[in-house]
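Repro:
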Amino acid sequence: MQGIVELNDAVGGVFLVPLQTIPGTGILKGESTFLYGNNALKYVQWRDTSVEGSSLDRQEREIQYIQAFFNQALNVAQGNVGVLVDLYNTLGDYSVTNLGVSEFSYLASVILNKSISSMDVVTFPGTLDSGGNLR
């Protein structure tokens, strides 16, 4: 989570239509929004602990944000693998991976050369019980 602000701003911010209003941010449900700076982090991180199931709402926002970020990163790259490698290097300060820069560069070039323009996210169906457990 600590790297969201830097990554978000590295692609020039992320545009989306919020799934929820986030208190104290000016982010309003259903109103087209450009997330920049700490608002990006607040959008993916906020959770109303007084509402049962709010962790699932947060997960929906995280998925929406990741997809919007992916699209923005591809738009900014405009076919230039170096831009995506720069993002990979930025991410390195906030994550651990066994994927080296050469492997990432190869995967990024495949994505750009195949004109992949969206990212599918698969989630398992379930419900949250009153104890906060997913069933």
